[in-house]
């Protein structure tokens, strides 16, 4: 049997988050807004990025949140980048790490350090349509319902244990624009789901039993 991993909520709270971004940071903004309420149970300790001059960093700076940038090309190899990312993230003592549109695969050192505490979103109902083109792939397959998934990150690509999912219906009109309108509808649902899940994990903690993630009621 796989080991049971238990992650109690921090005491005293609130839970500390490090959010990793690569682009516009709309999920980050949703978390910033949620964390403004003390009852949410979490604060964003830092925002990290793999590139400069992105809107996600600007959102963090406007909210007076510390930031750090680690570009892969500035390191000898991916292992060195992963070690630096691990060290930079660890410096903020996070209870949870949230990859909010972070477009890099996390390496072995990062995964070993934060196993079971890395939260990601995906714009499809996993395990269907993993990878970078989930919306397009679902539309091309002809599904009538797709959606979004919040899951814990493991060493695979969108293969970690699922925490929560929400469905989004596909209309015939979604094929006309290549899925752009569908993707926007999914993003709206995704932001709400991510905020809900991160808040629950922060306030209640969680257990991982094989592929099941259990949050105390």
From TrEMBL:
Transferase recorded as keyword: yes
Recorded superkingdom: Bacteria
Binding locations of N(1)-(5-phospho-beta-D-ribosyl)glycinamide: 25-27
Annotated active site: 122
Principal EC category: transferase
Keyword check for Transferase: yes
GO molecular function, one term: phosphoribosylglycinamide formyltransferase activity
Segments traversing the membrane: none
EC identifiers of the protein: 2.1.2.2
Domain Formyl transferase N-terminal residue range list: 16-198
GO biological process, one term: 'de novo' IMP biosynthetic process
Catalytically driven reaction(s): N(1)-(5-phospho-beta-D-ribosyl)glycinamide + (6R)-10-formyltetrahydrofolate = N(2)-formyl-N(1)-(5-phospho-beta-D-ribosyl)glycinamide + (6S)-5,6,7,8-tetrahydrofolate + H(+)
CC annotations in GO: cytosol
Sites annotated Raises pKa of active site His: 158
Pathway: Purine metabolism; IMP biosynthesis via de novo pathway; N(2)-formyl-N(1)-(5-phospho-D-ribosyl)glycinamide from N(1)-(5-phospho-D-ribosyl)glycinamide (10-formyl THF route): step 1/1
SUPFAM superfamilies referenced in this protein's UniProt entry, alphabetically: Formyltransferase
Binding annotation for (6R)-10-formyltetrahydrofolate: 78, 103-106, 120
Entries under Pfam families matching the protein: Formyl_trans_N (PF00551)
Keywords noted in UniProt: Purine biosynthesis, Transferase
Role of this protein: Catalyzes the transfer of a formyl group from 10-formyltetrahydrofolate to 5-phospho-ribosyl-glycinamide (GAR), producing 5-phospho-ribosyl-N-formylglycinamide (FGAR) and tetrahydrofolate.
Family: Belongs to the GART family.
Protein name: Phosphoribosylglycinamide formyltransferase
């Amino acid at each position: 049997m796989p080991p049971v991993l238990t992650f109690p909520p921090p005491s005293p709270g609130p839970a500390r988050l490090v959010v990793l971004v690569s682009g516009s940071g709309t999920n980050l903004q949703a978390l910033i807004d949620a964390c403004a309420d003390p009852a949410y149970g979490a604060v964003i300790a830092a925002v990290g990025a793999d590139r400069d001059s992105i809107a996600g960093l600007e959102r963090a700076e406007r909210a007076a949140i510390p930031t750090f940038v680690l570009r892969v090309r500035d390191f000898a190899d991916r292992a060195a980048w992963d070690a630096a990312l691990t060290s930079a993230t660890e410096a903020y003592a996070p209870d949870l790490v949230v990859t909010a549109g972070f477009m890099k695969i996390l390496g072995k050192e990062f995964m070993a350090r934060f196993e079971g505490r890395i939260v990601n979103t995906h714009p499809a109902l996993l395990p269907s349509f993993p990878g970078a083109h989930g919306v397009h792939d679902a539309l091309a397959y002809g599904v009538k319902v797709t959606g979004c998934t919040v899951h814990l990150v493991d060493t695979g690509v969108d293969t970690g244990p699922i925490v929560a999912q929400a469905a989004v219906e596909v209309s015939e009109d979604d094929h006309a624009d290549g899925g752009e309108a569908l993707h926007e509808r999914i993003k709206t649902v995704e932001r709400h789901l991510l905020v809900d899940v991160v808040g629950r994990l922060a306030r209640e903690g969680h257990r991982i039993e094989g592929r099941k993630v259990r949050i105390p009621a």
